[in-house]
TrEMBL record:
The keyword Secreted does not apply. It holds the Pfam family DUF1295. Keywords: Membrane, Transmembrane, Transmembrane helix. This is Steroid 5-alpha reductase family enzyme. The chain crosses the membrane at residues 6-27, 39-58, 113-132, 138-158, 213-232. The lineage of its organism: Bacteria, Bacillati, Actinomycetota, Actinomycetes, Propionibacteriales. One of its GO terms (cellular component) is membrane. InterPro entries: UstE-like.
Amino acid sequence: MVTSFLLVSGASLLAVVVLMAVTAWIAHRIGKVSVVDTSWGLGFVLIALVAALLGGPIAGGDAARRWVLLGLVGSWGLRLAWHMHRRNRGQAEDKRYAAMLGDAPFSVAIRKVFATQAIALWFVSLPIQVSAVAGDGVAWVLVAGISLWLVGALFETIGDAQLAAYKRDPERGPVMDRGLWAWTRHPNYFGDACVWWGIFVVSASAWPGVLTIASPVVMTYFLVFATGARLLEKQMAGRPGWEDYAARTSMFVPRPPRRVQPSHRTVSRLPWRRRPAAR
């Protein structure tokens, strides 16, 4: 099994390196590093496809679980890639990358962005790679993983749709606090975490998938502390209405909103006092 895993993992890493090399070439050509956000989702789809195709012929891994994982990762990754493409299309460089890179030469972007994301893609996808070469597993654990993935996918999809509707609403308030956004300040990031914990549980339904637990832990750390929620909240700090929203709404794990007294900074929602959307 070790040799089979090394072959699947090596092929997955090679596929991701090629994808990021192409993405870096496109980014350099158009002068916008944020195109890497589209390739992030596509990278996981590519790895799941490699694992599904190679796992059986090389190691005789469980076929049903390989194709289940390809379906889960494929639907999630393609939706995310399309969402990021639509969000970034026609926009200037993302502020995160502009702040990170400044006026540095493109070689710095290759090291800090494209190479880093290639390694992260490979590491987070270890449950997919290991599962591809594993044998039969426990059915109810697999079903539990699919269920957790479904919860995450619904949070991401519904949260993104609600945010898009909010941005189109001319009567919107200064901060998005409707629907899932009233229960968690980051339903899309929470959903993303559930998706990857679900994929891990699917992999853990067969030995030695449980050994890849570091992958969803690292992904959750990125989503909460490194490049996700915390970074966004630094950008949101000081926006009209944000302080009250943060006081009553859970930062990550959903829960009913608290009842708090509005602060003196609360902005009126009367039409003539509307301000640009904070998100």
